[in-house]
Write a structure and sequence with these properties.
Residues 34-183 form the DUF7998 domain. It contains three helices and eight strands, in the order E-E-H-E-E-E-E-H-E-H-E. With 201 residues, the protein is α+β, with helices and mostly antiparallel strands. It has one domain. Helix 1 (61-78) packs across helix 2 and helix 2 (129-142) packs parallel to helix 3 (163-180). The longest helix is centred in the middle third of the chain and has 18 residues, at 61-78.
Length: 201
């Protein structure tokens, strides 16, 4: 079996291999009520692209669906889960209760090898925004051999109350990755390939 609840329950984990995620409820057929199918592009249930994506090629239709389906697998592998709702963060885009929350993507205008991803939390005071965006960055770039982009840049939407601090931290993470080719903290002790980022709640 995989994990027990001996550790902190409110943990967004970024691990190389996960046999069973303790948050993985809601992935059964019964849990699909109130969610769009991941194979469908439903723009009215997605956040509008924000300033980080402005002027770039927004992914829509099959392009959005294809990358989001891939993201589901990467997030599952790295344990990028929303602790509030207890599901893979990809499902936030599909959740009818939160049509203005989740990820939107755009190919960078001057460099098609770079993808931009902007995260809109469910509220401007979401305490998980820092952990979730960093976990996303680590999943996309730590498993970059699984997609066509050399770099996935991640930012939280500016209306989050800590957007400036979160985005500054993401920019530093990105700069170090671009400079060294390695994600800071990706090879920690105890044989883990990722890091653990604790949510304050």
């Amino acid at each position: 079996m995989g994990n027990t609840f001996g550790g902190s329950y409110w943990t967004v984990r970024s691990l190389g291999e996960i046999d069973m995620n303790p948050f993985a409820r809601g992935s059964t057929a019964d849990g699909d009520a109130g969610f769009d199918d991941i194979s469908e592009f439903v723009p009215e249930h997605l956040p509008d692209p924000g300033s980080f994506l402005e002027g770039h090629e927004i992914l829509v239709d099959e392009d959005h669906v294809d990358f989001h389906e891939l993201t589901r697998d990467l997030f599952e592998e790295r344990g990028v889960y929303d602790a509030t709702f207890g599901y893979n963060l990809v499902r936030l885009n599909l959740d009818h209760r939160h049509p203005e929350a989740g990820y939107r993507y755009a190919v960078e205008a001057d460099d098609p090898t770079v993808l931009r991803a902007e995260f809109t939390p469910t509220t401007e005071f979401c305490p998980q925004a820092d952990a979730l965006t960093k976990g996303s960055f680590r999943a996309w770039n730590g498993l970059s051999d699984r997609h066509e982009y050399d770099l996935v840049r991640v930012r939280v939407r500016p209306n989050h109350h800590q957007a400036e601090a979160v985005n500054d931290s993401l920019e530093r993470l990105e700069s170090e990755y671009v400079e060294t080719g390695e994600i800071p903290g990706e090879n920690e002790s105890n044989g883990e390939t990722g890091t653990r980022t604790e949510s304050p709640f």
